[in-house]
């Protein structure tokens, strides 16, 4: 078996493990959530999850794809500068979008039929996810599948298990257990991400 095939199998194993755990744990925990949450609370949480999923696309504006494409250019000598420029642009853009979302939080809440407070918490989660995915785009391009899988597993497992504990402790609006846990876990992951790319983002944007 040549080295290329071994490399493909190794990456496939890492991604498959992450996929199974990140999707399997939530599935196994589903009976727990349906027992803790009322039908209304579960419905709110489902809509909130859809809101976050859709909004991450708006906050990310496709930069993940640009990072992956640029990484495979023949001359990667300026990749750090390219990555740094995109990081600072994405940060500036996100600050603007966050301001818009907060200003329109009441209208957005009415549209999605969610509490306005939940929308504001959601914006924080979306911001954190956007930059974590930005880092994962680099990891995928650099073929660092093990790190990608570890981050995915940590996010999924810790968020799901932590959510159940928070929900159990809350007296009302138990869906906030998921929201609080996501923000805590994603904040820790993002701190790791910033530490990992610190040598990239010290470059001045072009």
Task: Summarize the SSE layout with pairings.
Layout: H1 3-36, H2 39-60, H3 63-71, H4 79-103, H5 105-112, H6 116-141, H7 145-169, H8 176-196, H9 198-201
Structural class: mainly alpha
The helix content is over 70%
Q: What is the rounded Rg?
A: 19 Å
Residue-averaged pLDDT, rounded? 86
Query: How many distinct helices?
Result: 9
Compose a concise summary of this entry.
The protein is mostly helical and 206 residues long.
Would you write up a description of this structure?
- The protein has helices at residues 3-36, 39-60, 63-71, 79-103, 105-112, 116-141, 145-169, 176-196, 198-201.
- By secondary structure, it is an all-alpha fold.
- Helix 1 runs parallel beside helix 7 and helix 5 (105-112) crosses helix 6 (116-141).
- The model has no long low-confidence stretch (mean pLDDT 86).
């Amino acid at each position: 078996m040549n080295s290329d095939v071994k490399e493909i199998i190794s990456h496939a194993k890492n991604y498959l493990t992450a996929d199974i755990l990140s999707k399997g744990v939530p599935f196994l925990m589903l009976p727990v959530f349906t027992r803790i949450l009322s039908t209304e609370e579960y419905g709110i949480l489902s809509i909130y999850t859809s809101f976050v999923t859709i909004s991450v696309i708006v906050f990310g504006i496709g930069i993940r794809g640009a990072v992956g494409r640029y990484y495979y250019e023949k001359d990667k000598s300026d990749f750090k500068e390219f990555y740094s420029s995109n990081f600072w642009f994405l940060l500036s853009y996100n600050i603007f979008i966050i301001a818009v979302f907060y200003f329109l939080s009441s209208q957005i809440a009415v549209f999605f039929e969610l509490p306005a407070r939940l929308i504001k918490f959601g914006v924080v989660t979306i911001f954190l996810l956007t930059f974590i995915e930005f880092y994962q785009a680099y990891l995928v391009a650099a073929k660092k599948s093990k790190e990608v899988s570890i981050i995915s597993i940590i996010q999924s497992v810790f968020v799901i298990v932590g959510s159940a504990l928070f929900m159990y402790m809350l007296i009302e609006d138990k869906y906030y257990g998921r929201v609080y846990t996501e923000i805590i876990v994603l904040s820790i992951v993002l701190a790791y991400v910033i530490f990992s790319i610190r040598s990239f983002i010290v470059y001045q944007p072009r």
